[in-house]
Amino acid sequence: MELRLLNKENQSANVVVSDALFNKDYNEGLVHQLVTSYLSNARLGTRAQKGRSDIAKSTKKPWRQKGTGRARAGMASSPLWRGGGKIFPNSPAENFKKKINKKMYKIGMCIILSQLIRDERLLVIDEFSVATHKTKELIDKLKKNELSKVLIVTHELDDNLYLSSRNIPDVWITEPSYVDPVSLLKFDKTLVTLQGIKKFEEILS
Q1: Which of 25, 69, 85, 163 is close enough to 52 for a disulfide, judged by CB 3.0 to 4.6 Å?
Q2: What is the CA radius of gyration of the chain?
Q3: Is the pTM of this model over 0.90?
Q4: Would the pLDDT of 114 be above 90?
């Protein structure tokens, strides 16, 4: 298939890309599995709750068993009491990992890229660079191309691009090997250099 290629002067040409990688039918189930596994694997599992044995309260029986007219109580750390421990506390060592094999991951990434092309959210440019590390220069360049919330995928990330993009919240510049499915779906536009497209073909083939 052919994609529209823009150069520095916004003049367009066509570039031939692989049908097997960039023209796949949409598979909602696989994309959902890819995204959920990525988000689950990113969880650190650092939250924890206290059980009744972890609560710093006396273990003495609050009052005698019978004769007071009140409900029976064994200790103040009971889960039924305010300030007591949780019945089934969350553990910080809980594992949230969801495995997805490499073949499924590659096919899922190809499906997402193919859908971005169909939705006209993926743009191919000859090259993308800035002369200095000033943020203003990058902002002016993005405004010129009518881009705001954009993921820029370049073959090699140079220092000027990296430094100039750090203070822009809705712009992320990365290399093809670091692109993830959530970022592809999150940004309004994805701008890929020609060498980046070729790198995608090497990684996903």
Answers
A1: 85
A2: 27
A3: no
A4: yes
**What's the CA gap between 128 and 202, in Å, rounded?**
20
| Confidence band for 10, pLDDT divided at 50, 70 and 90 | low
Give residue for tokens 């002067």: 9
Contact status, residue 158 vs residue 173, Cβ threshold 8 Å? no
- Two tokens at 109? 């990434």
Strand-pairing partners, residue 12, are 6
Residue 89's contacts (CB-CB under 8 Å, 6 or more residues apart) are 48, 49, 50, 51, 54
Q: What is the pLDDT, as a whole number, of residue 61?
A: 94
Looking only at the bridges linking them, the beta strands covering 171-174 and 150-153 are: parallel
User: Which residue ranges make up each domain of the chain?
Assistant: 2-43+97-204, 50-95
- Residue 10, Ramachandran bin (φ over 0: left; ψ between -120 and 50: alpha; else beta): left
Whether the Cβ atoms of residue 116 and residue 23 lie closer than 8 Å to each other: no
Provide the 8-state DSSP code for 67.
S
As beta bridge partners, residue 6 has 12, 125
Among 138, 128, 204, which Cα is nearest to 167's?
138
Q: Is 173 exposed, middle or buried (0-12, 13-18, 19+ CB in 10 A)?
A: buried
- 2-43+97-204, CATH topology level: Ribosomal Protein L4; Chain: A; (3.40.1370)
